[in-house]
Design goal:
Blueprint: E1 4-9, E2 12-20, E3 26-34, E4 39-48, E5 54-61, E6 64-72, E7 78-83
Antiparallel strand pairs: 1-2, 2-3, 3-4, 4-5, 5-6, 6-7
């Protein structure tokens, strides 16, 4: 049973990462980079519902949401869009 998949650099998450639900479905995927005092999310991230449909997706820059983020219901239908 895999919970997380990725690389640690100097003891902290770095580069591509995937998280999984207990049942084995992918929960999220994206990448980490070095922040000022901790690892931060960087680049495109996608989060999934347990049924495999995308829940939300967007881009992080320096650990903060940037640009347009979209959220979807469990059927894959877009339910909201927010710009940061």
């Amino acid at each position: 049973e895999i919970k997380r998949q990725g690389i640690y650099k100097d003891g902290v998450p770095y580069g591509p990462w995937k998280d999984y639900y207990r049942e084995g479905q992918i929960k999220s995927e994206g990448a980490f980079s070095n922040g000022a005092d901790k690892p931060v999310r960087e680049g495109k991230w996608t989060f999934y519902h347990k049924n495999g449909q995308v829940e939300k997706e967007g881009v992080y820059r320096g650990g903060r949401k940037k640009g347009t983020w979209k959220e979807y219901n469990t059927l894959g239908i877009e339910v909201s869009k927010k710009t940061y």
